[in-house]
Write a structure and sequence with these properties.
Shape: rod-shaped
Largest sheet: 5 strands, mixed
Structural class: alpha/beta
Strand content: 5-15%
Radius of gyration: 59 Å
Length: 470
């Protein structure tokens, strides 16, 4: 084939991927050798691996679909195997005789062997129906698996063994689903473990189990362990061949999917080659599951960050609302206090005005009766200019009336404030509210104009009326 004889730089991406997988399974570093081996099998990876390990053509036997979740259709041809088919290798117990003498001995032994096998299987079947094995709990399964692992570690050097998952089969499946890892299941009889049906201390097998973090090994015996027998019944299908080595992988659902299996005794190097081929077939799906989980983790992390940011924003908004509410309550309280204070001041002012009106009424009635007639010899008339601009005339006694009489008269007028001063226009003199100073002593003349001014307006120019008067 032209593509097979081309240099590595001329390979298509698909052939390059197949070549790298072939190198990973066989351990061959020479690219040219790998390319020749793949070209001889028309770039069929499984046939090239089988030919490298001298396995001959692969045989695929049907497996009941109810054993494990996932599609398990099998194809009986030597071409490329669909990715959803179970990779199955069965090593037969019997090999064809190679001499005439062997053929004669085999023909004599076949009737006895067939009769013995049939009767033994029938007796075993009837015995299992009459005396079924009791179902065990998870704690008993844990004890059985731990006992088998401890026995192996005692018989073999624990340091030379690969990592073994010492837990029930259900726990191993759950662990593989959680970590998205392959599960290698090794089932054999107690005699098979003793005779090393699979050499667990083989360097290639140990390297396959421990070289990465995506392969988990679980093992158990099937004749002295109910857990092992249950798993064997689950995985073996219609075949009773031991040992059984199966490779399971997560399928994205609740159960694991069987990718491939090897039934019967096989040289460990060839077994590792088959396991690597199975792992290569399931690696794409495993990577897809990991990518999907990473995306889910990323989405979940992003959602958690968004939720945290939303919660932080919500806390800040609540804190702002609380502060704003407290400020509004404080402002309302201050306004209420201010309103109450104003009401108190207003009430006091109204009381003062009311009392002032009473005082003015009393003083006004008294002054109306005490005004001198115009022809009185001591009468002197003054003109008062009020703050409102109105003018009022009033006659006083020159000798008997004092400066306080001027203030009492101005006080009873309507437009006069509570605090005021009486100011002489010219020369400008502030009339002091003094009951001991008479009008004659003050020097006021008749018809003089006196200005009534508020204390506020007067204080700017003359803050001390008594000093101005002096």
């Amino acid at each position: 084939m032209a593509e097979g004889n081309a240099g590595p730089h001329q390979l298509s991406p698909e052939h390059t991927e197949i070549l790298l997988q072939f190198q990973d399974m066989t351990g061959i570093d020479d690219i040219a050798v790998c390319e020749v081996a793949l070209s001889e099998t028309n770039w069929n990876l499984e046939e090239a691996v089988a030919q490298h390990f001298h396995l001959g053509p692969l045989r695929r036997v049907p497996t009941p679909p109810q054993i494990l979740a996932g599609p398990q259709r099998l194809v009986g041809h030597t071409g490329p195997v669909p990715s959803d088919a179970v990779y199955s290798v069965v090593v037969p117990y019997w090999q064809p005789p190679d001499t005439w003498l062997a053929w004669c001995l085999w023909c004599l032994a076949v009737p006895f062997y067939t009769t013995y096998s049939t009767v033994a299987d029938l007796v075993r079947y009837i015995y299992d129906i009459i005396f079924p094995r009791p179902q065990i709990g998870n704690s008993d399964a844990q004890t059985e698996v731990t006992r088998r692992v401890s026995t192996l570690q005692r018989e073999l050097e624990a340091e030379s063994l690969p990592s073994i998952f010492a837990a029930p089969f259900a726990s191993a499946c759950e662990h593989c689903k959680q970590t998205i890892s392959f599960l290698v299941v090794y089932l054999d009889s107690r005699r098979g473990f003793e005779s090393r049906g699979v050499d667990l201390v083989h360097e290639g097998f140990k390297q396959f189990i421990d070289e990465g973090d995506d392969v988990v090994l679980w093992l158990c015996d099937v004749d002295s362990s109910t857990e092992g027998d249950r798993v064997w019944t689950l995985l073996r299908g219609f075949s009773r061949t031991l040992p059984l080595v199966a490779l399971l992988a997560p399928s994205g659902g609740a159960r694991l999917r069987k990718i491939g299996e090897v039934k019967g005794r096989l040289e460990v190097g060839a077994l590792v080659g088959h396991l690597r081929s199975m792992r290569a077939r399931g690696l794409g799906r495993l990577r897809e599951l990991r990518r999907q989980r990473a995306e889910r983790e990323q989405v979940r992390g992003l959602r958690e960050e968004q939720d945290a940011a939303y919660e932080q924003s919500l806390r800040l908004d609540r804190e702002k609302a609380r502060k704003r509410r407290e400020e509004e309550e404080e402002k309302q309280r201050v306004e209420e206090d201010e309103e109450e204070r104003r009401e108190v001041v207003e009430e006091e002012r109204r009381e003062e005005e009311y009392q002032l009106e009473i005082d003015k009424s009393i003083e006004r009635s008294r002054l109306q009766d005490s005004e001198l007639p115009s022809d009185h010899p001591e009468a002197v008339q003054f003109q008062f200019r009020l703050p409102s601009g109105s003018r009022i005339l009033r006659r006083f006694h020159r000798v008997d009336d004092t400066c306080s009489a001027l203030y009492r008269f101005a006080f009873v007028q309507d437009s006069v404030p509570r605090s005021f001063l009486i100011v002489r226009s010219y020369p400008r003199v502030v009339v002091v509210n003094d009951d001991s100073v008479s009008l004659r002593q003050l020097g006021l003349v008749a018809n003089e104009i006196l200005y009534v001014q508020s204390v506020d307006s007067e204080s700017d120019s003359d803050p001390d009326p008594c000093t101005s008067n002096r």
